Amino acid sequence: MQTLNLRSNHDLRDEIKAYWSIRAETFDSQPGHEIFSEEERAAWHALLQRHLGDGTGQTALDLACGTAVVSHLLDDIGYRVTGMDWAEPMLERARAKAKTRGRPIRFLMGDAENTMEPDGAYDVVINRHLVWTLVDPLAAFKEWHRVLKPGGKLLVIDGDFVNTTLVAKITGRLAALMARLRGRNARPQNGPGAVLAETHRSILSRVYFSEGARAEAVADLLKAGGFSSVIIDTDMGAIHRTQRKNFDFLKGLERAAQHRYAICASK
Length: 267
Description:
Blueprint (H helix, E strand, L loop, with lengths): L1 H26 L10 H15 L6 E5 L5 H8 L3 E6 L2 H14 L4 E4 L12 E7 L8 H11 E13 L5 H16 L10 H13 L10 H10 L3 E6 L3 H8 L4 H8 L2 E8 L1
Parallel strand pairs: 1-2, 1-4, 2-3, 4-5
Antiparallel strand pairs: 5-7, 6-7
Helix pairs in contact: 1-4, 1-7, 2-9, 6-10, 9-10
């Protein structure tokens, strides 16, 4: 039974890696992933500084860094950043972006759940929209605790993308109806977008947080993983307001109604 479970986890992790490798091509074109205004960039800077402070002279590990959006935010406020991702297409874009900006961000191919980095190597560990994908979050949290220096901080930025509020449900349905009225459903239902959406649903149904990554549940596991001073911050309004300008009205309302949060914890 244990062998079957390990095999299942291995297969799921491979699927997750393949999914994000495919998503790399369009990742930076999507609001909520890339940053599209200096106003939004400032809102992200404010969140990071609120929890992590100025990064001058400090090291940071950005796990599942993707195309390095968060890595650049950390670099902006003074951190010496290492970005880690296991999808080579993401890292290709991350390296190109850093080269274009002339930023000395270091990139490694690696597994966020088993970084292979030395004990106590970083002042800060951060990730955005990673926790909901984890197969074994407790083991991952222990790993992140291990690579932090004593007194170091972890910042998790994530959300519950399963359980939606009534507002999110209504706006989501209205958005779908508007799309149909505009003829957007004329696209093939079995095209690449539909296949990716189904893959996303399949992955979400099998990860640890398949019923939704609620902030309180994540915080409890962080404590079990050795972290202390665990603080849940749901004040994401400034970021959501700037992002809303890049969504249509209904999509902006839907996102603002979602359970999104930052959790800061200390070693």
